[in-house]
Amino acid sequence: MFRFLIRKLLYGMLVMAGVVTIVFFLFNILPGDPARMMLGQRADVTSLENINRELGRDKSLPVQFLMYLNDLSPLSLHHRKDSLSSFYANEEKYGHMISLLPLGDHSLYAKTPYLRRSYQTSQKVSEVISDALPGTVILAIASMVFATLAGISLGVVSALHKNTFTDQLIGMAAVFGMALPSFFAAIIVAWIFGFVLSDFTGLNMTGSLYRIDPFDGIVMEWKNLILPAVTLGIRPLSVIVQLTRSSMLDVLSQDYVRTAKAKGLSKAVIVGRHALRNALNPVLTAVSGWFGSLLAGAVFIEYVFGWKGIGKVTVDSLERYDFPVVMGCVLVVSLFFVIINIFVDILYGFLDPRVRIK
Fold this sequence. Notes:
Layout: H1 2-28, H2 34-39, H3 45-55, H4 61-72, E1 75-79, H5 84-94, E2 98-103, E3 106-110, H6 125-160, H7 165-179, H8 182-196, H9 198-201, E4 210-213, E5 217-220, H10 226-232, H11 234-252, H12 255-262, H13 267-305, H14 310-319, H15 323-351
Antiparallel strand pairs: 1-3, 2-3, 4-5
């Protein structure tokens, strides 16, 4: 089992290394002058050169890439003969630095990964992401809870009414939900329930989790979570419906279920205590795997509904050519996706030992 864990962790590290490489070179070959974005069109040449020197853009692309890796890594190399001002500048970027090991003229330090600063606001990218990430996580959790509860319920109903009109209706709705593009679903749901029927639903087309009131401070707006969470949960709900139906039909055909029926147990007891419990294993595994996809797939949903999260921050930053923020958002979402997939693989390994030897 230990070798299985190490192998999965190494795979995850290789994936993240590939993502970091692609993201860096992709955004550094795009047109645009970061120094001019930060200082404006009227900046003088000296100021532009100073900013480019600070960003390392006066060096070759491979050297810039090594500097970027040095910033991202929790372990980084710094020259031991740096001036006191340079050391304080590094601490301002990275936070508290801990010297671990002298290596010639350099020292190995432990520090917080540094995602650079926004071109537009000069705010640390990590601060921008930490401000937006809770909104995305809350949205993903809410949509997953909705999809799981509704999907399992509809899947059970579909299995218990096999080959009836109810079963066919639920099946058609599930197929439609899987084929429906997220951005199109978001526009339709926002228009119908947030505009046309807003007097009945009391919901808005756009809105975030909270608003700042000059007198009351932070005011939570939980109703704004309903429409984006339901919309984001449509696709996983459709998958869960089909998985639950298939698993339930398989379990209901088992001998122990027929034995329970022969003993005279009620249908509710057979379904709830025996069949459903055994049918949920593949469903719950799929649910854990979908959570990472929801974090990545929330981009269109957040943008359409004006929900403050990683997706909206990414799109807004792209429009302003604020590449450090975009790069940081992509890396954080990729990291979450890798971690969740590793967790799912480990969960599979515990449930099915045959997976560990592959």
